[in-house]
Design brief:
4-stranded antiparallel beta sheet; 3-stranded antiparallel beta sheet; 6 helices; 242 residues; alpha+beta; single chain
Length: 242
């Protein structure tokens, strides 16, 4: 029988969310992708060299590596493996998470690491199911699925500082999001005029309290300033004693 395919062994043994040695000086160089054809972990800056390969995004959940159930189901049967929801998507843990059973009670427990599970699941991770299948069936081939193409999910974020040449070679389902664009860039000359009008109205409404906006201070007349200065309370007078 087939023990383990190379990509499965790489998914289990490769280190993710560590800095890429090839792109040490680049920003956002964490390895969060597993290239199933090269059996290695890569960072988003390495995508141009793996654009025609099967790529699987690895995510982080509760300090453990997880993958989307939808993507993993294309490669291997994940039935009886408990899935968790993160960002509206179901994910599966890659490695087993041992847990000591402090008391013996009714409930569902993982077949490999005794972790408490919800019914009807019997495996807490992909690694636990693989170990269970190899131990009892000695053959993993009935659970493997043929997958010739595997692209990154549409919500995958590509760093904005990639070069133009690298951008054109990315997978078509990748999403580019730029978070560094300043919010003030959306305001043109008309935006500044509107701001001045708002500030002017604000000054007129709060004239007695001398509220002056920095951008419209030069538009406040001397008459307004004089009126607001003259509106001060006088000396209080006590009522005569009876």
């Amino acid at each position: 029988g087939i023990r383990k395919p190379a990509w499965l062994d790489a998914l289990y043994t490769q280190k993710f969310f560590v800095g890429c040695s090839i792109h040490e000086t680049a920003k956002k160089n964490e390895k969060n992708i597993c290239c199933l054809d090269c059996c290695s972990s890569i960072c988003p800056h390495c995508l141009s060299s793996h654009r025609n390969h099967r790529l699987l995004q690895v995510r982080r959940y509760v300090y453990h590596d997880v993958v989307r159930l939808e993507d993993l189901e294309k490669l291997i049967d994940c039935s009886n493996v408990q899935a968790y929801t993160i960002n509206s998507a179901k994910v599966v843990f890659i490695k087993k998470r041992p847990q000591n059973r402090h008391f013996k009670g009714s409930g569902n427990y993982c077949t490999s690491c005794d972790r408490s599970l919800q019914e009807p699941y019997i495996h807490c991770s992909l690694g636990c199911k693989v170990d269970f299948v190899l131990k009892h069936y000695k053959d993993l081939s009935p659970f493997l699925r043929t997958c010739n193409t595997l692209l990154l999910s549409p919500d995958f974020l590509i760093p904005h500082d990639l070069g133009d040449e690298e951008m054109t070679n990315e997978t078509p389902n990748s999403t580019i999001v730029d978070y560094d664009e300043p919010m003030s860039s959306s305001l043109g000359s008309s935006g500044s005029d509107d701001m001045s009008m708002v500030c002017t109205d604000f000054v007129r409404k709060k004239r007695s309290a001398l509220y002056v906006c920095g951008r419209s201070a030069n538009k406040v007349s001397e008459e307004d300033m004089a009126i607001s200065m003259s509106r001060r309370k006088g000396i209080p007078h006590r009522s005569p004693l009876c």
